[in-house]
Design a protein that fits this description.
By secondary structure, the chain is an alpha/beta fold. 27% of the residues lie in helices and 22% in strands. It has helices at 76-85, 104-113, 139-145, 160-170, 184-187, 196-201, 208-225, 237-248, 260-263, 285-296, 329-339, 342-350, and strands at 3-11, 21-27, 30-35, 45-47, 53-56, 58-63, 88-93, 120-125, 149-150, 177-178, 192-193, 205-206, 229-231, 253-258, 302-304, 371-381, 400-410, 413-416.
């Protein structure tokens, strides 16, 4: 689609037009001109929106939809539409499906379903068969089919030898191995952070120790194998400390933090709202401070919405029996823009593509147009009306947020609200 974007403020530190308000001409998916003012002699579609800002396309490294197997939670088609309307031009899709994405044909199926979407769907294959943690999945075959990483979503690899072999094997083709940071025998049946709040609520606790033990073990295995490891969704101060030390040793490790773990503490569970039943659990103020500092100093590489739609039958039930997870694509930018200044929020959403082997496109003449479109100013209360997902299990419902998203231009397509 050819389009002329009018009066857009560019937020892209790699672009010569950074912090300038310009017109952007896009023809056949390529930026062909940028200037203070451009005419439209060919009568292309004109996009003019209040206080329009544009940046490089945003990326989310941990997204679940449901299809195949859990279409009642979310379909691929609507999930990709939700991602686009939330400003994301690229996502990494977890193997959180039934059957699990653990072979080449499953990877090909997911890629085919996303072929016509403006959102670049990057498949994350399971690390082990059926994500059971016993035998490695078909890592190389999935890699050749286009899988960007390997991860048993929210399932810790309890057998250290399995992770050791995975790191060694994947290093032969520069594969990215992900390990969920939880020692399951320590976390047990915990449903929230183990602290004074869990005691007062009478809920079983998942201690920070469970995360720290797993992170420490995985880092020792990484040092032994000289592989490449990504630790998704850390939540504790001790994890930040361990990973920072590992990076000083020049180990090839990266990590991410869920946006909601930067925003809420475990005190949010006082009303037993199952939307706040999350894995990893919400921690305390000390952990949040350490996580934010880890983002500032580069210890933490990525933020993620950890978008995980759950149908109402598995959320609107007794707290102990509800499934873990929250949706987060729709609130990701607004939550970050509330916590940080807009430049920082955008930077956090555009970082880390290289970890997953995804190309970045600066906003410049001759570059592929891969743009997120947003307005950083409006303040609003997040309601169900702001949700595009099939499921509505959001921790941000009733939260006061700042900044709205218009949509994206990517893969030659414009999708806006």
């Amino acid at each position: 689609m050819n389009v002329l974007i009018k009066s857009a403020t560019v937020l892209d530190s790699s672009s010569e037009f950074h912090n300038q308000t310009v017109d952007i001409l896009i023809e056949k998916g390529v930026i062909t001109n940028i200037a203070k003012q451009l005419d439209n002699p060919k009568n292309y579609k004109t996009l003019s929106l209040p206080n329009l800002h544009v940046s490089q396309g945003w990326f989310d490294s941990s997204v679940s939809f449901g299809e195949p197997g859990y279409e009642e939670r979310e379909t691929i088609a609507n999930g990709l539409k939700t991602a686009a309307l939330s400003g994301f031009t690229a996502i990494a899709l977890n193997a959180n499906t039934n059957p699990v994405t653990d072979n080449k044909s499953s990877v090909n199926y997911l890629k085919a379903q996303a072929a016509n979407s403006p959102v670049n769907l990057n498949v994350v294959g399971a690390l082990t068969k059926q994500s059971k943690g016993e035998d490695l999945a078909e890592l190389f075959d999935m890699h050749t089919a286009g899988a960007k990483a390997f991860y048993d979503y929210q399932h810790a690899v309890s057998n250290p030898n399995v992770l050791k072999i995975a790191l060694q094997y994947a290093s032969n083709f520069d594969g990215l191995v992900c390990s969920f940071p939880q020692e399951s025998k320590i976390s047990g049946q915990g449903v929230m952070n183990e602290d004074i709040t869990s005691t007062s609520l009478g809920l079983k606790g998942n201690p920070p120790l469970a995360e720290a033990l797993q992170v420490a073990r995985d880092l020792y295995l990484l040092e032994y194998t000289n592989g490449k490891l990504h630790i998704p969704c850390i939540s504790t101060a001790e994890s930040v400390k361990l990973i920072k030390a590992a990076k000083k040793q020049h180990l090839n490790v990266t990590c991410s933090v869920p946006i909601h773990n930067l925003y809420f503490t475990d005190e949010a569970l006082h009303d037993f709202d199952t939307n706040f039943k999350l894995l990893p659990p919400l921690r305390n103020k000390k952990d949040i401070a350490a996580l934010k500092k880890g983002l500032e100093d580069g210890t933490i590489d990525l933020v993620t919405s950890d978008h995980n739609p759950i149908d109402i039958e598995h959320k609107k039930i007794e707290f102990d029996h509800a499934l873990f997870g929250t949706i987060g694509l729709e609130s990701a930018f607004s939550a970050l823009n509330t916590l940080f200044d807009t430049t920082t929020a955008v930077s956090l959403l555009t970082k880390g593509k290289s970890i997953y082997g995804i190309m970045q496109h600066t906003i410049a003449i001759g570059q592929t147009a891969d743009l997120s479109l947003f307005n950083p100013k409006p303040k609003y209360q997040f309601e169900t009306s702001h949700i595009h997902s099939c499921s509505s299990n959001s921790v941000f419902l009733k939260s006061e947020l700042k900044g709205t998203v218009y949509g994206v231009y990517a893969k030659g397509q414009l999708m806006v609200k």
